[in-house]
Design a protein that fits this description.
Elements: E1 5-6, E2 12-17, E3 23-31, H1 32-38, H2 51-60, E4 62-63, E5 73-78, H3 85-94, E6 99-104
Parallel strand pairs: 1-4, 3-6, 5-6
Antiparallel strand pairs: 2-3
């Protein structure tokens, strides 16, 4: 049996305030690997017959996905080893995102 994880428990919440200290927003930042770990791990043909089956079963073990507005999720993928999180959060606040998914991509040649 798989463990059920609520998506709000993933990642870290960052509170964003203006220069006067007034709270503007809270942004949830989640490493994509944490989502995979909470779901069913990486897709492999050995474990799953099809990608559709994998996605269906992964979504089933994540609670709270129905409350997420996909237009307010910023998926930030990069090959850089380090990112300036403050800049990504600033961008997210400016454009109305409330969740950021960070994905580190391996460089290809």
């Amino acid at each position: 049996m798989y463990r059920i994880t609520h998506v709000e428990s993933l990642g870290t919440d960052y509170t964003v305030a203006d220069s006067n200290g007034k709270i503007i927003n809270t942004i949830q930042v989640i490493p994509h690997s944490e989502i995979l770990d909470a779901a069913l791990g990486k897709f492999t043909l050995e474990k799953f017959d099809t990608i559709s089956s994998y996605l269906e079963k992964s979504i089933a073990v994540l609670e709270g996905t129905e409350a997420i507005d996909p237009t307010r999720v910023l998926w930030y993928a990069t090959t850089e080893e380090e990112v300036v999180l403050a800049e990504i959060i600033e961008y997210a606040v400016k454009y109305g995102y409330d969740k950021i998914i960070l994905e580190h991509l391996e460089e290809t040649e």
